Amino acid sequence: MKKTKKLWMLATIVCVQVVFASCGIIDNTVIPDTVVLKEWQAGQTVSADVVEAFGGIDKCFAAEPIPDGVWERMQGKTYKENPYIGRDDLRHIRALHWDYDNQMHVGEMIVNREIADRVISIFRQLFDAKYPIQRILLPDVYDADDETQMRDNNSSCFCYRAIAGSTKLSKHARGLAVDINTLYNPYYKDREDGTRFIQPATAAEYCDRTWDFPYKIDHNDLCFRLFTEAGFEWGGDWTSCKDFQHFELIEE
To answer: Angle between the 222-229 and 116-128 helix axes, to the nearest 10 degrees?
Structure first.
C-alpha cells in the first residue's frame, strides 16, 4: 500500500511539472543580453535575437541630442571651443550596419542637426541593402587623429578641424560632411612638383580606381546614389583633387 502511495505521489509531481511547463511557469529560455544596445557600444557585433529583444530594427536608428557621456568624450578631441558651432547644433546618430562578415555591427556618428534625418535615412537604406561598412566609430576613439582613423577604415562625420594641407575649416568642422570606408576611398592631390599627397598614406593602391576591390565607391555604388540624391556632392567628382570617401552637403 505504501509503495502504491509513493508511486501515486511521484506521478502527481511529474504531472504537475508537465502542466506548469505547458503553462509557461517553468521557462528555461535564455533572454538575450541587450546591454550592448542599451549602452550603445559602438563597434560591437549584435545578433538578430538581441536586436529583437531591444525592440526591433527601427529602434536602432535614431538622431538625438548628444548624450552627456558622448559630449564628455568629445572635449579636446573632435570638439574644441569655437564661435561657429556648439552642442545644440549637433546630433548623435545611432545606427546598425553590415560588413562583409555578414554580421550586424553597432555604429555611432556626430552630425550637424541640419543633415541628421537625411543621414539616418541613408544608413537605414544601406543597412536594408546589407551594404558593407567596416566601422562607424566616433573619431574620438582615435584621439581625433584623421590619419589614424582613415587607416582603420573608419566612417565618420564631425571633427572640428581644418582641410588637410590648409588653414581653412573643413565641412567636417560643421558636421556637414560624411566620410565612408576611408581606407579604400582615399583623398589625394597631385602637387605641381609631381608628387602626390595621399590620405591615408597607406592607401596609395586604392587611388587607382580602374580595378575592383572591397568597399569601393564609384558612380555605380549605392552609397554614392543615396548621398547624392539626398543633396550631397561627392569628392570623387572633384577635379583639383579626389576625395572618394567624402560626401558633403551642397549649400545654396
So the answer is: 150
pTM (two decimals): 0.87
Cell numbers at 245, concatenated = 570617401
DSSP assignment of 114-173 equals TTHHHHHHHHHHHHHTT-B--B---GGGGTT-HHHHHHTTB-B-----BPTTSSSBPGGG
User: Within the chain, how many helices (H) and strands (E) appear?
Assistant: 7, 10
Take residue 76 and report the three cell numbers written for it. Answer: 579636446
- CA dist 138 and 150 (Å) reads 12
Dihedral (CA of 62, 65, 67, 73) sign: positive
Is there a contact between 85 and 27 (Cβ–Cβ < 8 Å)?
A: no
pLDDT in tens, the chain (252 residues): 444 444 444 444 444 444 444 444 455 678 899 999 999 999 999 999 999 999 999 999 999 999 999 999 999 999 999 989 999 999 999 999 999 999 999 999 999 999 999 999 999 999 999 999 999 999 999 999 999 999 999 999 999 987 666 667 889 999 999 999 999 999 999 999 999 999 999 999 999 999 999 999 999 999 999 999 999 999 999 999 999 999 999 986
Is 233 in contact with 250 (CB distance < 8 Å)?
yes
**How many other CB atoms are found less than 10 A from the CB of residue 201?**
11
